[in-house]
Amino acid sequence: MQMYKTQMPKLNERMLKGLKGFHKGLVEHGIILRSKIKNQTFQETIRKELNDMDRFQKEIYRIKDPEIRELTRALTEYACAFYKLVKKRGIENYKGTIEFLDKLYLELDNKSNFREEAEIKELIEALMRYVTFFNKLVKKKGIDNYRKTIDFINKFYFEMDNKYYSELEGKPEDMKQLAEYLDEVVV
């Protein structure tokens, strides 16, 4: 997998801190807290989250802005790959998994002939797609507006999560409605 050496951007400490927070949020909010709220096992919650994201992937085409659509697709793919990795390694080991990813991402650009678990390859490929579409969005909106772009993306993801879990979860056509709602979120 030599492509990672040439295509993977160097991640700085700030980026790694953001990914670590995202990972912790996926586990602590997305799995542990949701399992308690729904009175489900962690495995059931992971299975449901993966199913929900798979259904959402089929509706993402409804987001008309190409960069936002592909950024959302890449984020969803990344979250799925992360959940698969956590499921494989065990929820009880999630902190160790996050630490492993921190170290991996720091060293990734120095590795040649990268070989790892399928879930990790999937995670890295989704991260690379995310970075690519993020950069396209920043370029489209103008580098001078990068802070506004980041604020918008944060708002967008908050709206996505909030709308789904507070209003749409479990309703017929929930993912279609979510994608249509996201298409209307304004910068």
Please give the structural blueprint:
Elements: H1 3-7, H2 13-38, H3 42-57, H4 66-89, H5 94-107, H6 118-141, H7 146-168, H8 174-184
Helix pairs in contact: 2-3, 2-5, 3-4, 4-6, 7-8
Describe this structure in words.
Residues 1-6 have low confidence and may be disordered. This protein starts with a helix and ends with a helix. Helix 2 runs antiparallel to helix 5 (94-107). The chain has helices spanning 3-7, 13-38, 42-57, 66-89, 94-107, 118-141, 146-168, 174-184. Helices cover 76% and strands 0% of the residues. The chain has 187 residues and is mainly α. The radius of gyration is 17 Å and the shape is globular. The longest helix is centred in the first third of the chain and has 26 residues, at 13-38. It contains eight helices and no strands.
Summarize this entry quickly:
The chain is built from eight helices and no strands. The chain is mainly α.
Structural class: mainly alpha
Biggest beta sheet summary: none
- Relative helix content: over 70%
Helix and strand pattern:
HHHHHHHH
Strand percent estimate: under 5%
Q: What's the number of extended β-strand segments?
A: 0
Mean pLDDT: 88
Report the uncertain regions: 1-6
Rg (CA only): 17 Å
